[in-house]
């Protein structure tokens, strides 16, 4: 019975056939190797050509080679590695807290009507209130140190995890529940083998938004009395008019976000290998 529960439902075979037909209609189905780097490489090429031809003025945006020189200077003569590690520490801890809390709340709310009545309303209210607008309250409650920064990032990350995981739980096809009653499996087995795997695509989608949100929160909180971090480096560069150093910080934020998002996408592609979509 357990093997049957772990096997993709028969409908997945029909979905796979339909998906392949749609992919043929939309274009070639052959996967492009390293496709996720094509866009960034093209953007870098446009940036380089624009800087070399003078279309992009240095006062507006530093040239890529100037940014590389600034990166080397920050690495050799300043504590760039320490700033990067400090930012990563805040982001990872805050993201982990947000993901765990959001997933637990989503499971409680998604599997229990009582849990939904207690949890879903406050989360939806929080969703409509920008977390960045609550930072002054967090400063009053937790001070202006590391704790405030981590809690802000966690709260920003929590919402997309909860929303997408909850939607995934509530979107489970009712036919699976009827099948579970027919074959007589317990509620625990049904949740473990059907509901939670069925909500996994929603959770992974929420992870992509949570990663981006955590970096957004990191950018903001590091402007508040940070003594280390990429945001601290950008703040100092702004005071001294160092545009190239500012771009170094922005590029680092972008690289972190893009790599994290790519990691989540690759994880989803492997974990959800049975769930064929247009992405493959």
TrEMBL record:
Spans through the membrane: 34-56, 92-115, 127-144, 150-169, 190-211, 245-266
GO CC annotation: plasma membrane
Record-level GO BP terms: transmembrane transport
Compartments (UniProt record): Cell membrane
InterPro entries: MetI-like, MetI-like_sf
Domain ABC transmembrane type-1: 84-264
Membrane topology, as annotated: Multi-pass membrane protein
Primary location group: membrane
Keywords (A to Z) from UniProt: Cell membrane, Membrane, Transmembrane, Transmembrane helix, Transport
Family label: Belongs to the binding-protein-dependent transport system permease family.
Protein name: ABC transporter permease
């Amino acid at each position: 019975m357990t093997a049957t529960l772990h096997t993709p439902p028969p409908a997945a075979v029909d979905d796979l056939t339909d998906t392949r037909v749609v992919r043929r209609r939309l274009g070639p189905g052959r996967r492009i190797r390293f496709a996720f780097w094509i866009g960034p490489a093209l953007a870098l090429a446009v940036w380089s050509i624009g800087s070399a031809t003078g279309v992009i003025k240095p006062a507006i945006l530093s040239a890529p080679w100037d940014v590389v020189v600034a990166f080397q200077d920050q690495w050799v003569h300043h504590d760039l590695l320490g700033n990067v590690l400090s930012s990563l520490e805040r982001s990872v801890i805050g993201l982990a807290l947000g993901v765990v809390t959001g997933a637990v709340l989503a499971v409680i709310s998604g599997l229990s009507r009582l849990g939904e009545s207690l949890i879903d309303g406050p989360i939806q209210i929080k969703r409509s209130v920008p977390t960045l607008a609550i930072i002054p309250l967090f400063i009053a409650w937790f001070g202006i140190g590391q704790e405030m920064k981590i809690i802000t990032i966690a709260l920003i990350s929590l919402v997309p995890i909860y929303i997408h995981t909850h939607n995934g739980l509530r979107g489970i096809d009712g036919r699976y529940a009827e099948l579970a009653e027919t074959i007589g499996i317990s509620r625990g087995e049904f949740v473990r083998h059907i509901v939670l795997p069925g909500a996994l695509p929603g959770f992974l989608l929420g992870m992509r938004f949570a990663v981006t949100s955590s970096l957004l929160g990191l950018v903001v909180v590091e402007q508040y009395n940070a003594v280390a971090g990429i945001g601290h480096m950008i703040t100092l560069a702004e005071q001294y008019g160092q545009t190239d150093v500012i771009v170094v910080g922005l590029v680092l934020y972008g690289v972190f976000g893009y790599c994290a998002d790519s990691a989540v996408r690759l994880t989803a592609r492997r974990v959800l290998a049975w769930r064929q979509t247009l992405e493959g």
